[in-house]
């Protein structure tokens, strides 16, 4: 009985770790996408050509 409880606890822990890892990866990809879209942050920007 104890081995089944340990196996269940490890399975739940691994599922939580997987969800956390996927969340971190999604945030990294989202931040990279936003940096590409907005020119890399709040530094020097190219002047607008819409006059």
Compose a concise summary of this entry.
This protein is 71% helix and 0% strand. It is mainly α and 51 residues long.
Unreliable stretches: none
Could you say which overall geometry the principal axes of the C-alpha atoms support? rod-shaped
Structural class, please?
mainly alpha
Succession of helices and strands: H
Biggest sheet descriptor: none
| Number of strand segments | 0
Helix content: over 70%
Q: Strand fraction band?
A: under 5%
The helix tally amounts to 1
Cα-atom Rg, whole angstroms? 22 Å
Distance between the termini: 75 Å
List keywords for this structure.
single chain, 51 residues, mainly alpha
Written account of the structure:
The chain is mainly α. The protein is built from one helix and no strands. It has one helix at about 1-35. It is rod-shaped. The N and C termini lie far apart (about 75 Å).
Q: How is the secondary structure organized here?
A:
Elements: H1 2-37
């Amino acid at each position: 009985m104890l081995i089944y409880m340990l196996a269940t606890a490890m399975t739940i822990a691994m599922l939580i770790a997987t969800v956390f890892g996927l969340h971190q990866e999604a945030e990294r990809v989202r931040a990279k996408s936003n940096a590409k879209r907005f020119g890399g942050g709040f530094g020097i920007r190219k002047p607008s050509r819409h006059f």
